[in-house]
Amino acid sequence: EMQVDELQRLLAGMEKEHRSLLVKMKAGEAELERLRSVEGDKLAQQDRSAELEKEVAMLREKIHHLDDMLKSQQRKVRQMIEQLQNSKTVIQAKDAVIQELKERVAYLEAENLEMHDRIEHLIEKQVSRGGHSSRTRSKSEYVSRSLPPAEQSFFSRSKRLTGPKPLPLIRVVET
C-alpha cells in the first residue's frame, strides 16, 4: 500500500509538470505566431523565432515522454491494486475454509465426547448387571458383548489408538 501511495504521489507530480509544460508550449507557440505575423526582417526576431521553434520541439518531446511514463505508472498502479484485491480475496477464502474446519473439529469433538459417554454408560450398565456373575469380566468384554457392531468397532479402534504410537519413517534424500 505504501508503494501504491508513493506511485500515486509520483503520478500526481508528473501530471502537474505535464500541465505546466503544456502551458509553456502554448505560450511559446503563441509568441512564435506573433513574431511570424509581425512584418519585418529584423535579425533579432528571426533568431528569437528559431530559438522558440527549437524550444517548442523540445517541449513536445518532453511531453510525449511524460505521457508515456504516466501511462506506464498508471498501469503499474492498476496491477498493484489488482494484486492486492486478489490477495484479499484469497485470504478471505482461506479464512472461510479455516472457520469451516474449526466448526467441523468442534462438531467431531462433541460427537466423540458423546460416544465416550455412551460407552461409559453401557459399561456401567454391564458392570451393575453382571456383578453377580461368578467370574469377573473386563470392561472390554462387557463393551464388546453389549454394543452393536458399529460401536464395537469404534471402541476397538479407540482402544488401539491409545497404545504406543509407531515411530515416523524418515527418508534421507541426497541433493
TrEMBL record:
<feature type="coiled-coil region">
    <location>
        <begin position="4"/>
        <end position="118"/>
    </location>
</feature>
<keyword id="KW-0175">Coiled coil</keyword>
<dbReference type="GO" id="GO:0031674">
    <property type="term" value="C:I band"/>
</dbReference>
<dbReference type="InterPro" id="IPR051375">
    <property type="entry name" value="Tuftelin_GRINL1A/MYZAP/CCD68"/>
</dbReference>
<feature type="region of interest" description="Disordered">
    <location>
        <begin position="126"/>
        <end position="148"/>
    </location>
</feature>
<protein>
    <submittedName>
        <fullName>Tuftelin</fullName>
    </submittedName>
</protein>
<dbReference type="GO" id="GO:0035556">
    <property type="term" value="P:intracellular signal transduction"/>
</dbReference>
